[in-house]
Design brief:
With 132 residues, this protein is mainly alpha-helical. It has one domain (15-130). It is 55% helix and 9% strand. It has three helices and two strands. It has a two-stranded antiparallel sheet. Helix 1 (15-39) packs parallel to helix 3 and helix 2 packs antiparallel against helix 3 (100-130). The longest helix has 31 residues, at 100-130. The chain is elongated, with a radius of gyration of 19 Å. It starts with 14 loop residues before the first helix and ends with a helix. InterPro entries: DUF1648 (IPR012867).
Length: 132
C-alpha cells in the first residue's frame, strides 16, 4: 500500500452525469410511489423469499414490502455519499496529478451507473413480489 497523497479534485458534473443522476433519483421516487399505490391492494401476506425455482417459500405481512425500497434508498444514499470521495477509491493504476481527473471521472461515473442498477434491481424485486 502506498502512502502518497492523492490529489483532491472537485469534479464538475457533465450534462450526461446529471441525466444519469436524474434517472436514478426518478426511478427511486417511482419505486416508492409504486409501493405506496399498490400497498392497499396487496393481500395480508406476501412472499418475502423465493427458492431457486422461483416459488415462494416464506411469507410475511404486507408491510414488509416497505423493506425493499428502504434498503434501495439506503444503498442509493450510501453510494451518493461515497461518490463524493473518489480519492479514496481503489484504482488499478497509480493516481498522479496528471491522470487523477480522468480516473476520478470514470470511477464516479461507474458508481452513478451502479446506483441506477441497484434501483432497477430492487424495482424488479418489488414487481415480482407484488405480482406473485
Amino acid at each position: 500500500m502506498t502512502t502518497t497523497k492523492r490529489p483532491v479534485i472537485k469534479l464538475e458534473l457533465s450534462l450526461f452525469d446529471k441525466i444519469i443522476e436524474g434517472i436514478g433519483f426518478l426511478l427511486l421516487t417511482a419505486l416508492w410511489l409504486c409501493v405506496y399505490v399498490q400497498y392497499a391492494g396487496l393481500p395480508k401476506y406476501i412472499p418475502i423469499h423465493f427458492n431457486f425455482s422461483g416459488a415462494a417459500n416464506s411469507f410475511g405481512h404486507r408491510s414488509d414490502i416497505y423493506s425493499l425500497p428502504m434498503v434501495a434508498t439506503a444503498l442509493y444514499i450510501l453510494l451518493t455519499v461515497v461518490n463524493n470521495f473518489p480519492q479514496y477509491f481503489n484504482y488499478l493504476t497509480p493516481i498522479t496529478p496528471e491522470n487523477a481527473h480522468r480516473q476520478y471521472l470514470l470511477a464516479t461515473r461507474l458508481l452513478r451507473y451502479l446506483k441506477v442498477l441497484v434501483v432497477v434491481i430492487f424495482a424488479t424485486l418489488i414487481s415480482i413480489t407484488i405480482h406473485y
